[in-house]
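[Help] Beginner question about ligand-bound structures

Sorry if this is basic. My supervisor gave me a protein sequence and a SMILES string for zinc ion and asked me to "get the holo structure". I don't really know what that means in practice or what format the answer should be in. Inputs are pasted below exactly as I got them.
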Amino acid sequence: MPTYNYRCKLCGFEFKVQKKMTDEGPSECPNCKKNEIEQILNPPFFILKGSGFFVNDYVKKKEEKHKKRKEKSEEERIKQKRIEKELKNIDFKRKPIV
Ligand SMILES: [Zn+2]
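Answer (accepted):
No worries, everyone starts somewhere. Holo just means with the ligand present. The predicted complex, written as structure tokens, is below.
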């Protein structure tokens, strides 16, 4: 099933929806529940046609972006773990002493 990218015009929330081409798209934003969704179309690759240099540059940038994203996700994972740990601690402290 193809994946479609959508963006909320109001809050800028971006999300993906897997659906059949014949299915209707989402009608409301999962974030703010407003009915202002627009579809994000795939990047127009045909623009790159003609200049090999530009394509190489583009690929390089893409790789860098990918690398950065990987590093970031690792960072996020550690951050998330820390938050989870803190939440557990808070939970523990909040338990009523009876
Ligand atoms: Zn929204």
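A couple of things worth pointing out: The mean pLDDT is 78. The beta strands are 3-8, 14-18, 37-40. Feel free to follow up in the thread.
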